[in-house]
Amino acid sequence: MQPYALTIDKFLDHAAKWSGEREVVTGDAGEAIGRIGYAALRERSNRLSGALLSLGLKAGDHVATLAWNTQHHLEMHFALMGAGLVCHTLNPRLTVANLAMMINDAEDRALAVSSNLVPLLIELAPHCPTLEHVIVMDDVHGEFSLRSARVWMHDALLESRGAPARWGDFDENTVAGLCFTSGTTGKPKGVLYTHRSNYLHTLRSLQGDATALTGSDVVLVAVPMFHANGWGMPLAAPTVGAKMVLPGRHLDGASLARLMRDEAVTFAVGVQTVWLGVLDHLDATGGELPALKRVLIGGSKCPEALIRRMEERLGARVQTSWGMTELSPMGTIAPPDESSTGASGRPPMGLDLKLTDADGVTLPSQRGTVGHLKVKGASVVARYFKAETDALDADGYFNTGDLATIDEDGNLTICGRSKDLIKSGGEWINPAEIEDIVGRNPAVGLVAVIGRQDEKWGERPVLIMEPRRGQLPDVEALLGSLRGKVADWWIPDQVLWVEAMPLAATGKIDKNRLRADYASGSIVVHGGN
Amino acid sequence: MQPYALTIDKFLDHAAKWSGEREVVTGDAGEAIGRIGYAALRERSNRLSGALLSLGLKAGDHVATLAWNTQHHLEMHFALMGAGLVCHTLNPRLTVANLAMMINDAEDRALAVSSNLVPLLIELAPHCPTLEHVIVMDDVHGEFSLRSARVWMHDALLESRGAPARWGDFDENTVAGLCFTSGTTGKPKGVLYTHRSNYLHTLRSLQGDATALTGSDVVLVAVPMFHANGWGMPLAAPTVGAKMVLPGRHLDGASLARLMRDEAVTFAVGVQTVWLGVLDHLDATGGELPALKRVLIGGSKCPEALIRRMEERLGARVQTSWGMTELSPMGTIAPPDESSTGASGRPPMGLDLKLTDADGVTLPSQRGTVGHLKVKGASVVARYFKAETDALDADGYFNTGDLATIDEDGNLTICGRSKDLIKSGGEWINPAEIEDIVGRNPAVGLVAVIGRQDEKWGERPVLIMEPRRGQLPDVEALLGSLRGKVADWWIPDQVLWVEAMPLAATGKIDKNRLRADYASGSIVVHGGN
Question: Which of A334, B108, B287, B389 is the most exposed place for a label (fewest CB within 10 A)?
Fold first, then answer.
């Protein structure tokens, strides 16, 4: 058989050749402000490669992007990866300190930034000595300069230095992308994606029981491209020649609803929060989205009632999924033709799952029991960026750090983080189960259960909550709600509340900080029993 | 990213784990005579590997199969490929001489045979000195022995020597299969499939605009597994956990219609001839196939009127396709949600096409012009079995030998074989276009246009036909039907007819023999002008 490197420049080549007029639409606050066919996008992106190489950037160099989902950002992705450069996506919602740490760790030589993020960049740049070039993308308002790096405007750069570049032509194991994990459980860790891993992830995600994307679909990519490869959509859409709608910075309900209606979006991809915003907007305005067929959600468990409400109001099937940065990111997904009960679906061909006990021994039954979730596949991390050892067990599986169950039909449900488990009297307590029950109390805003050291039991659970504004939960009622639902010895010994729960950049509760604050006594406790 | 070899044993492992109860049904003359879940099939197949290895077969050895589509045959496929043996499929409709040539060329050490093909095997075996073992599959009637090879019964072998075997655990470029081309244009040539090429072919074929196969489908595999990997279906169905129906030897309309109805087949795969048989049967009996949604056809161009008739009578969408043994075999396919006009669809991601002129120069326009079709991809042959050079051009493309056009929407139509082109006065004549027009005459059964040597023009076209029984076509009317539709100088100088057109094993006209017979004057001419 022919040698044929699995490199992702082939996706855009294919789109340009077979779906050349199919559009990529860029939105801004709900308005379509730009549209381009795949053939023209391929041509611009390829010439942008030439421009980037003319700046002295070389295959293997790291280039950061700090940007929203736009045509320029997509052009930059393909321009970088096609030429063998590494595209390092950054989350603009992180702190300057976090971003600087990542840029320095990655030794990024250049950075492409959305124009409305230039203020953040100006704050950031002095802390990033490796940056030689900055490319300003999207609509540009005014010029500026930096002390340490040369500033280019995307379109002007393309015009002055754009030149056809040779794409691909390297080994499929060449690194294509770099993304740091959210760091909710410690220091952010970098994941290096290869062309092969992205290529196979894309083909895997296109299966009929996964995204089932086709050339007649119109895909709204409301998950940011900086967030775990935009769930693979920016690669999957051109691969099948689907029209792609990139919403820009604004993910509010009104903006998304307008774009979805105007562009006749059939398949919408993003975390459930953004669809709740769309729901609220539709409820308030009485709008409809007649073209919409499916909504892909992920990120966190979605209650079944909420899925039904979304399906009813949006007139579309909701597909649940689970993934993580380390998985490129797709893990499991519910098929389009099945009604999801809130579980996260099954793995498409190409991802192997197993559940083990705390010692890494495969559970005798892989169905109906909670276990530590391990995964294996061509798009799964083996070793974190700059790490000295692989993050794999003896069988080559990666430990997700998640606790999960698999039901009789094979559907996965994540039910906690293994690091959050509390060992009391030699037995495990799963905080997520307690949080799930307590969280249903209408007076409770956020809730976290952590372990405290205990002389007799080793650890004992402590419940910490942030009440809803103006509410004061009844502690006895809260603990009473747990009785009969969890073992008696799982019930927390102590209940505290705080004014504001510490959150990580992704919006998840930062349990590390909570544990540290609790241990050091510095936690601001406003009450307790 | 993790090392993760793309080996096809993973398909059956995945099916066993996630669709373990989903069935593989074997039919015989329309009756379901066996059914097994993927988990049990995986267990049997894996232990069959152990049994085969216990016979002294070693990774890399070639083992032939001479069999219909049955559970035993499928078990044998996975048993061979999972253990690193090479599965060499043979077409039972070839001659003993042809089969012996292939077995000897492949140096097959063993052969697995359907029990009802034992008479053919007994004829064949004395000509195949490399065969050490014969495994008799399917229902066994009586025993027999061979002088040169030891005979085993499939189930008895599994029972006496079956043992768990280690699957995979080798490089993805390991050879998995061998299939000889039909040899309509010369000596049959062997194509070696690798695990990687089969794995990627499977993922490619599962795209939503290709087979779009899902776990809720029930697939009837009416294309023989010995014919270009059964169009990839025996690998694709377990990959997504689709129920698979293997019809056995009998592909007549009554047998297939009964199986399709009884097993609620949703997706039926095979050449158009078999569906015409089903149509006739339904017309005669008034039956319906309510579960059927799609029929995938290929092999030769299908007139649009016939597609519409099939769609109406079967109540299903017809997907057209084009492929060849050298492509594993899928080339192009019409999407499920488009009404096919008879063209063969577009290439899914992962297959690159180009049209060139006779000198191999890429045509400036790839749309609307007839060109020589070249292809590139991870599942495309690079070098034939035992060939000393690659069959590729300077850009790494394989020459299909076909002439084709691509319309504005990207749909491919094959319009002749480049070897059949006739060069007259320095310009090309495409016999397929002439044959297409003449073939519409109701008095004409089969028709072929070949070139004869000509002193003045180099070559000139000769039309040879086999009239329909009892008919005698009017030569002047035939030639007249060409006027205005092809250039005047394309019109054949000579029209002959024969009692029986020479056919290759696949049923296609054997033009090589026709040319040789014509040149040697040995053609049996019953008339002419």
Answer: B389
Find the CATH number of the domain harbouring B483: 3.30.300.30
Which of the listed residues B267, B289, B321 is the one where a domain comes to its end?
Answer: B321
Q: Considering Cα of B290, then B293, then B296, then B300, what sign does the dihedral take? A: positive
Final residue in a domain of this structure, among B274, B292, B321:
B321
For residue B242, the chain A residue with the least C-alpha distance is A209
pLDDT tens readout for residues A321-354: 999 999 999 999 999 998 888 899 999 999 999 9
Report residue B313's pLDDT band, with 50, 70 and 90 as the boundaries.
very high
Residues A310 and A262: beta-carbon distance below 8 Å: no
- The average pLDDT across A160-172 equals 97
In whole angstroms, give the CA distance from residue B371 to residue B499.
Answer: 34
Measure A63 CA to nearest chain B CA, in Å: 20
Partner-chain contact B215 A194, CB within 8 Å: no
Residue in A with minimal Cα distance to B204: A203
* Spatial contact of A528 and A495, defined as CB atoms under 8 Å apart: yes
Residues of B in contact with A193 (CB under 8 A): 1
Across the interface, whether the CB atoms of A240 and B209 are under 8 A apart is answered: yes
What residues contact B107, with CB distance under 8 A and at least 6 apart? Answer: B62, B130
Is the CB of A382 less than 8 angstroms away from the CB of B206? Answer: no
Cβ-based contacts of B267 with chain A (< 8 Å): none
Number of Cα atoms under 13 Å in the Cβ half of residue B134: 27
Judge if A316 and A447 occupy the same domain.
no
Q: How many helices (H) and strands (E) does chain B have?
A: 14, 25
Whether residues B3 and A214 touch (CB distance < 8 A) is answered with: no
> Is residue B220 included in any domain, yes or no?
yes
Q: Take residue B226 and report the two structure tokens written for it.
A: 């010995």
- As for the ipTM of the complex, it is 0.90
Instruction: Note the pLDDT of residue A340.
Output: 86
Predicted confidence (pLDDT) at residue B183 exceeds the cutoff of 70:
no
Residue in A closest to B216 by C-alpha: A337
Beta strands in A238-362 (DSSP E): 243-246, 267-269, 294-296, 317-319, 321-323, 330-333, 351-356
B481-to-A507, B78, B429 alpha-carbon distances in Å: 75, 53, 17
How far apart, in whole angstroms, are the C-alpha atoms of residue A362 and residue A445?
Answer: 37
B428 is a catalytic site residue: yes
Using CB atoms, which residue from B1, B6, B197 is nearest to A380? B1
Tell me the pLDDT band of A37, cut-offs 50, 70 and 90.
Answer: very high
Q: Of residues B89, B174, B181, B202, which has the active-site annotation?
A: B181
Residue A238 preceded by cis peptide, ω within 30? no
* Mean pLDDT of the region A480-494: 90
- Do residue A215 and residue B209 have CB atoms under 8 angstroms apart? yes
Q: Do A203 and B350 touch (CB under 8 A)?
A: yes
Helix (H, G, I), strand (E, B) or coil at A314: helix
Full-model pTM: 0.91
User: Which domain, by its residues, includes B93?
Assistant: 9-321
Answer yes or no: is pLDDT of B129 > 80.
yes
DSSP secondary structure string for all residues of B125-168: GGG-TT--EEEEESS--S----SSSEEEEHHHHHHHH-------
Contacts of B196 in chain A (CB under 8 A): 1
Statement to judge: residues A315 and A442 lie in one domain: no
A263: Cα within 13 Å, side-chain hemisphere = 34
Q: Which of A11, A216, A378 is opposite residue B2, by nearest beta carbon?
A: A378
Quote the CA–CA distance of A101 and A199 in Å, as a whole number. Answer: 29
